[in-house]
Amino acid sequence: NAGVTQTPKFQVLKTGQSMTLQCAQDMNHEYMSWYRQDPGMGLRLIHYSVGAGITDQGEVPNGYNVSRSTTEDFPLRLLSAAPSQTSVYFCASIRTGGSLNYGYTFGSGTRLTVV
Amino acid sequence: SQQGEEDPQALSIQEGENATMNCSYKTSINNLQWYRQNSGRGLVHLILIRSNEREKHSGRLRVTLDTSKKSSSLLITASRAADTASYFCATVVPSSGSARQLTFGSGTQLTVLP
């Protein structure tokens, strides 16, 4: 099925551990982004990419790294997890120029708990 | 900072009634979008309204946009229990580049009672 696939769905980390949240899309979308969602709040943009090899920071980038080696994949790395990074993480994609006329496609999310 | 703020934060209605949610935003926009999020799931795009449009319909959904007041409303008619979800507005703002980020509001939790 076409769409955005995120793995894992759930993860528990200890403070200081590192991990990578995976995001893949098969719609040939140039634009991909990562959001975090905290209780009672909307989604906040962490990092985004407008194409392979190009990434940029969003509203809350500290503590996260990204890379975009292919059009399909956009992994999010936590180098040293902190309790403040406990959240639900969503990946979203859209084709370039599509945001003027179409909605974004979201993955089903990764629920991360840092203890 | 969040672009959009939604009102009310929570809404509980009976099946068959209409549900209205409001969204206010701060800056000029290209378009405003509404998304639904079922509990524990990702967001699903519902409807998009461009800055030069005032009203749009899609099935049981009706969206209005008032750019002079920087506000939008989402009306769900003849609600069903399956409409129970969180609803978010999100805006796309003018940008010189190709990156058109979505900026979300805090959401309205709608509960439709059978």
Overall description:
Chain A has 115 residues and is mostly beta strands. In chain A, 0% of the residues lie in helices and 49% in strands. In chain A, the strands form two sheets. In chain A, strands 2, 4, 5, 6, 9, 10 and 11 form a seven-stranded mixed β-sheet that branches. Chain A has a four-stranded antiparallel β-sheet with strand order 1-3-8-7, with no helix packed on it. In chain A, strand 4 and strand 5 form a beta hairpin. The relative contact order of chain A is 0.33. The model of chain A has no long low-confidence stretch (mean pLDDT 93). Chain B is mainly β and 114 residues long. Helix content of chain B is 0%, strand content 56%. In chain B, strand 7 and strand 8 form a beta hairpin. The termini of chain B are far apart. The chains are: A mainly beta (115), B mainly beta (114). At the A-B interface, strand 4, strand 5 and strand 10 of A face strand 4, strand 5, strand 9 and strand 10 of B.
Q: What is the succession of H and E elements of chain B?
A: EEEEEEEEEEE
| Quaternary organisation of the protein chains | heterodimer
Question: What is the alpha-carbon Rg of chain B in Å?
Answer: 14 Å
Query: What's the count of strands of chain A?
Result: 11
- Strand/helix succession of chain A: EEEEEEEEEEE
Mean of residue pLDDT values of chain B: 91
Share of β-strand residues of chain A: over 45%
- Determine the mean pLDDT of chain A: 93
Strand content of chain B: over 45%
The greatest interface between two protein chains, and residues involved on each side, is:
A-B, 31 and 30 residues
Radius of gyration of chain A, Cα only, in angstroms? 13 Å
Low-confidence stretches of chain B: none
Class from secondary-structure proportions of chain B:
mainly beta
Share in helix of chain A? under 10%
Query: How widely separated are the two ends of chain B?
Result: 37 Å
Q: Helical region count of chain A?
A: 0
- How does the major sheet of chain A shape up? 7 strands, mixed
Alpha carbon gap, first and last residue of chain A:
35 Å
